[in-house]
Automatic annotation (TrEMBL):
Lineage per the UniProt record: Bacteria, Pseudomonadati, Pseudomonadota, Alphaproteobacteria, Hyphomicrobiales
PANTHER family (alphabetical): BINDING MONOOXYGENASE, PUTATIVE (JCVI)-RELATED, TRK SYSTEM POTASSIUM UPTAKE PROTEIN
Identification of the protein by name: 2-polyprenyl-6-methoxyphenol hydroxylase
Transmembrane segments: none
Cofactor or coenzyme needed: FAD
Gene source species: Pelagibacterium luteolum
């Protein structure tokens, strides 16, 4: 072992994939010094994590790289990025549109996007390199972590030279994937739900397949439901609009690269033969895993290090990037001294139940629903009944009452309803609701409110009375909380929010709404929003 040395930062991030780099940017833009340790010198060319939701694109907007990300897209903008579900084979008789995300577009500031994860990572790396407070160490792996009451550290090794050194920071965040060294080294336990399925990931080239699927213009991913697979998908996706594809599907346990005819499997799933040239053949176990805690002391985990699930529905990368936004502003607030001692604990309080709900209520439920459908309906046995049910599924008539709408209504730092819980079930609404994402609306001056939000907390004050807004501003100044006040006449779209005063968090979730406050209440509201013990804070400031 070579001599060990130390480097320091306020936050040390192990893992420089999308979640790690997104967190680094979130912190770096807030003036926090960050060190990122990433084992790969360049992004790995495996096309995963392709679907980026409208909410995720809001993150890229606030990170200043929305345009750059869209420019990196590998499928022409005018082609479309929609998907479809097919029965039996991809070229069979039954299809319907799938993941119609445009239905929720009015509730978000940005359009969704689709591009390979390695292209997303390249944009994130370029942005991080522009931030003077972010330092990166590419080609280094973490082998161990330690912490004490004041700091956390990682022993890292250069993958090329074998050199080892110790790097330290006030806080350490593991964004190092489902086999996280940080999680294991910190002693954070995972719970797993194993579906006992081995899955293959194929990356291949085929110009003929592109020609075969020309009948589905504007589609770039395709989900095949086959009765033999009992609800588990065969999933095709375009990497570009030429000849590169990827394919996920179950394979028999014990399958290896050498003992299975993958070309025939592809042909059967499509329903036709076509040329195939494989670039990558890999395997993964289909399971849901979630850490029992998202932190231990000064060590935190995010993204796949904290939770992992089958790549069904495009939740994975989006969930991880939401972790980064949630944890990022809380770490920055804590380091800069305007947060209470318990604010960082709300990262686990908010994000862990949202993932648990995502896995149970959407991913696993989708598998169960598809399995039940395939068992009950078959066009060979009862064509009329099958077609009626298929049409209902495609039209959304068999959809759930609640939508995928992650929210923190039960969080201790938002003013949600009594007995509310943090989860992924919800409904989209124009009304501003504590714990829910703020729907963008146009202000009286013509700007979208998302163009006016501050980097800290924001108070939207609607109407002519500015006294309450002034009280919030004064209270924020005393407590040291950065607060932007947006005063608006309240006419037009903003009236749909349903309240005169709306307190908005740095991650665009609503903290509190109201039409009035009693004397001193503004201070109490702000203190709770950042987990401050107000009396203790005031004693400290005026001691």
């Amino acid at each position: 072992m070579t001599a060990q040395s130390r480097a320091s930062a306020e936050v040390l991030i192990v893992g420089g994939g999308p979640v790690g780099m997104g967190l680094a940017i979130e912190l770096g833009q807030r003036g926090i010094t960050v060190l990122v340790v990433e084992k790969y010198p360049s992004p790995q060319p495996v096309p995963k994590g392709q679907n980026l939701t409208q909410r995720t694109m809001e993150h890229f907007h606030f990170w200043g790289i929305e345009d750059q990300l869209r420019a990196a897209r590998t499928i022409p903008r005018d082609y479309g990025i929609g998907g479809l579900t097919a029965y039996g084979t991809l070229l069979g008789d039954y299809h319907y549109d799938w993941l119609q995300r445009e239905l929720v577009r009015p509730y978000y500031y940005t359009d969704n996007e689709r591009l390979p994860q390695y292209a997303t990572e390249a944009v994130l790396r370029a942005r991080a390199a522009q931030l003077p407070s972010v330092t990166t160490l590419f080609g280094w792996s973490c082998i161990e972590t330690e912490q004490n009451a004041a700091s956390a550290s990682a022993t890292i090794v250069n993958r090329e030279t074998g050199e080892q050194k110790i790097v330290s920071a006030l806080y350490l965040v593991g964004c190092d994937g489902s086999k996280s060294v940080v999680r294991e080294s910190a002693g954070i336990v995972q719970d797993r739900s194993d579906h006992d399925r081995l899955m293959v990931l194929l990356v291949f080239k085929s110009k003929t397949l592109h020609d075969l699927l020309a009948r589905f213009p504007g589609k770039s991913f395709y989900n095949v439901l086959h009765p033999d697979l009992e609800g588990y998908w065969q999933f095709f996706g375009r990497v570009d609009l030429g000849d590169t594809w990827f394919f996920h599907a179950p394979v028999p346990l014990g399958t290896t690269e050498d003992n299975f005819d993958f070309a025939s499997y592809l042909h059967k799933a499509v329903g036709a033969e076509f040329d195939v040239s494989f670039d990558h053949i890999g395997f993964w176990d289909l399971r849901v895993a979630i850490a029992r805690n998202y932190n231990k002391g000064r060590i935190f985990i995010a993204g796949d290090a904290a939770h992992s699930h089958p790549p069904y529905g495009g939740y994975g990368i989006n969930t991880g990037l939401e972790d980064a936004r949630n944890l990022g502003w809380k770490l920055a607030a804590t380091i800069k001294g305007w947060a209470g001692e318990e604010l960082l604990a709300t990262y686990d309080e908010e994000r862990r139940p949202v993932f648990a709900s995502t896995a149970k209520d959407f991913i696993e439920k989708s598998i169960e629903n598809d399995k039940a459908f395939l068992a009950a309906f078959n066009p060979k046995h009862d064509r009329a009944a099958f077609e009626a049910e298929w049409t209902s599924r495609g039209s959304g008539a068999r959809g759930e009452v609640n939508a995928y709408e992650p929210n923190y209504a039960g969080s201790s730092i938002v003013f949600g309803p009594n007995n509310a819980i943090c989860n992924a079930n919800g409904t989209h609404s124009d009304v501003a609701r504590p714990g829910h994402h703020l729907t963008p609306k146009t202000l009286s001056d013509g700007r979208n409110i998302y163009e006016a939000l501050g980097s800290g907390y924001t108070l939207l004050a609607l109407g002519e009375d500015n006294l309450i807004a002034a009280e919030f501003a004064q209270a924020a100044s005393i407590l040291g909380i950065p607060l932007t006040v947006i005063a608006d006449h309240g006419e037009g779209e903003c009236g749909l929010y349903g309240a005169h005063y709306i307190l908005i968090r740095p991650d665009q979730f609503v903290s509190w709404t109201g039409n009035s406050v009693s004397p001193g209440e503004a201070s109490d509201i702000l203190a709770r929003a950042v987990a401050i013990d107000r009396q203790a804070n005031l004693k400290e400031r005026y001691a």
